[in-house]
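Open question from group meeting: does this chain pack into something compact, or does most of it stay loose? Before anyone orders reagents, we agreed to write out a predicted structure and look at it together. Recording both the input and the output here so the notebook holds the full record.
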Amino acid sequence: MKFFSQKEHTFKQRLRMISFLFCLPIIIIALGIRVYLNGPIQTEFIKKHNVSVLQEVDYLNQQIGQIEILSSVWGQNLMKQFSIVPLNDSSAFQKIMTVSQDLFRFKNSNPLIKNCEVFIFSEESFVIGDGGTWSIQDESLYEEYRISNDKEYQWVLTSSNQLLFLQNISSVSSLGEVFLVTTMNKPAMLELLALSSIENGGSALSIDGKMIVSTGIEFDENYIIGHANRMSTWQETIDTIQYSFVTAKMARLAQNWLFYSVSPITTIAQPIHRFSDILLFIGVALFLFFVALGQVLVKRQLKPMDSMLNDIFGNENWQPHDGNEFDSLRHEWQQIMERKSMLEHIQQTHIKQDKELAVSRVIDGKYSYLTEAEVRNQLFLHGWKQSIAHYHLCYVFLAGNMIDDNQEINLNHSQAFILENLIRDIASRSFQEYAVCTFSEEGMLLFIPNESQASMDQFINLVNDFGNRIIKKYVMVITQTNVQEVQRLAKYAQLIVKQKEYRKIIPENQRIVPETVKHVYPTYLEERIIRKIERHDCAIRDDLDAFITHLLGEHNQQGFLIKGLGRLYDKIHFILFSRNISENFYISKTNLLKELAMYTNAMKVSEDLYTFFIHPILNLLIEQQKNKTDIAVEKAITYLRQEYRNPMLSLEETANFVDLEMTQLSREFKRVMQINFIDYLTELRLEISKRELLNSSMKINEIAESVGYTSSYFNRLFKRKYGITPGQYRQSQ
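C-alpha cells returned:
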C-alpha cells in the first residue's frame, strides 16, 4: 500500500492501480492454492503413499506366512502318511510318486513358490521332486539345504542367492536327515515389491541383514537398519534429492525380516505439482486478462474527469501539483482560502487602522475647529458606524519589577511589544470596539466606546493579572469614564496622561485617581545637600533619604517626587556648569527622572539617585579640585623660587598669590611635595646659600640677607641643618 502514500502518482495512475489490485486476489488465490498443494496436501499425499506401501508389505507378509503354514501342514501330513525307504521294490516307487504328486500340487498352490523338494541326506543321498527322484552328487548341498539353528523351520539364503524355506521332516525316514525345501519365486516377490516402488525409487527385502530381493535404487543396509530402529517413516535429502523412507520390520521363526521402500518426494507429489501448475497458469491468465480489461475501463472512465480538470485549470497542458490531480485541486483551494483569509485580515486591519487614525486625529486636535456633530460624522465616515453614546479613556503603563528591582527597570522594546499585543488581545475579548490612540514605551492610551463600567473593571483586572504574570511588572491604569462629548476627547486625553504624576511609590498595581494634596518643598534639606556637594562631602546619603521621604510625604505621590528631584537636579547642574564641568560627563535630567519614575520603592529611588547622579558628580568635583590644587602647588613653588629673598615671604602671602585658602594650600602642598610649606622654604633658602658660599666672595651676612634671613638667624639655621657654621662650610669646601 506504499503506492497510495507517494504523491508523485497521479489520480489516473491510482485508478489504474486500483483496477490492478482488484485483480490481484486472483493471482494470490492461485499462489495460495499452489502453496497449499505443495504443503499440507503434499504431506498428506506422502502419508497416504507410505500407508499404501505398508499395506503392500503387509500383503507380502501374509503371503509368506501362508507359505510357511502350507509347508508346515504339508510336512506334517507327509510325516504322518509316508515312510520313505530306498527304492528296492515297486511299492517304494509308488510312495515316491505319490510324494512327487503332492509336491507338484504344493508347488502350484502359491505363485510365490518356485519349487518344492524333499532332500534325504544319508549314505545314499537323494532328492524327491515333483518330477521324480534323483541322487545328490554334490555333498556341499548338505550345508545349504539343512537347518542350522536346531529348529524345526528356517529360512535360508543359499550361495546361489536362492531363498529357501526348510522344514525338518526326518521322522518320515530311518535312513538319515530329511528336509522339506520350499524354494521361493524371487521374480514373483519382485513383482510384489515393484508395486510399492516408483520411478527413481527403490525397495528391498532382507533377512538377518542379508539382502533377498531388491528393485530400483539400493541404499546402504546399515543406514536403513539404523534409522528403522528409531522410526518407520522419515524424509531425508541425499545428493540434493529429498526422499521419503518407509520401513517395516517382521520377526519370523526367530529371524529378523526387514522391508524398506525409498521414493523421491518429487515423484510422489508429481500429480499434485502438475495440478498446482495448471491452477497457477489459469490464475496468471485470468489476472492478466482482468488487468488489461480494468485498464481499458479506467481509461474510458477518466475521459470525463480529464475534460473537467482541463476546464478548471483552463489549459490542456497543465501539470498536476506533485503529480496528483486531487492534490492539485486541494492545493489550489487552500491557496484560494489563504488569499481570502489574508485579504480579509488586510481589510480588517485597514478598517481598524482607519478608525484608530480618526480617533488619533481628534486627540491631536486636528478636528478642534469642528462641532460635536461634525466630529461624530468624521468618526462615522472612518468606520465608527455605531453611535457613540459615551466612551471611556484608559491609559495603561508599567512601573517597577515585581521580583527584583536590580533588574532592568525601563520597558524595553520586547516588553513593549508584548504589552501592546497583550492589551490588544484582552481588549478584543472584552470590548466590541476599541482603538489604540497612542502607544510608546511609556504607555498606551485606549478609546473604548459604549462599554459598561463592569466591562472596564474586568478589562483592568485582566491587564493587571497578565501584566504581572507575563511581563513581571506592576501595572498602572488611569481611566476617564462615561464621557459623552467626543469633541473634548483631546482635552481628556491630555489630562489623563498628565495624571501619571499621581502614581504612588508603592510596590503594587494601581488604578490612579487624582488627589488635591498640598505639598511643601524641603528647601532646608536641598540647601544642606548643595553645601555638602560644594564641599565634596560624600556623607550625603542620609540627607538624600530625608529629602525623598519629605517629597513623598504621607501620600507617596510620584508626581511631586519627580518635580522635586528635577528642581534639585537643576541646582546641582548650575554648580557643575559654574565649575566648567560638561554635562556630557554625567546623566541627563530626562534619563535620570525616567529611570527613577519606574520604581515602586522610595529607598530604591534614593539609592539610584546617589549611584547614578550624586556619586559620579562628587567624583567629578573632587577630581577637578585635585587638578586645580596640583596646579596651585606648582604655581606656589615657582613663586617661592622667585621671592625667596623677601624676608616677609609667608604661607598666607603665597596662598593669596595662588588663590587658595591658607589651610588648603598647606594641606595640598604637603600632599604633593611630601614636605610642609615652611620646611620647603627653609631648605630652598639654605641650598641657595650653600651655592653662594662656594661660588661667590660675598660676606656671610650679605648671603644671609640675600636669602631673606638675618645673619644670626641664618647662622643658627645653617648649623642646625648641616652641623657646621657657614664660615666652616666655606673653608672646608
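Observations to bring back to the group:
Residues 503 and 690 are 77 Å apart (CA to CA).
Confidence is low (pLDDT under 50) at residues 1-9.
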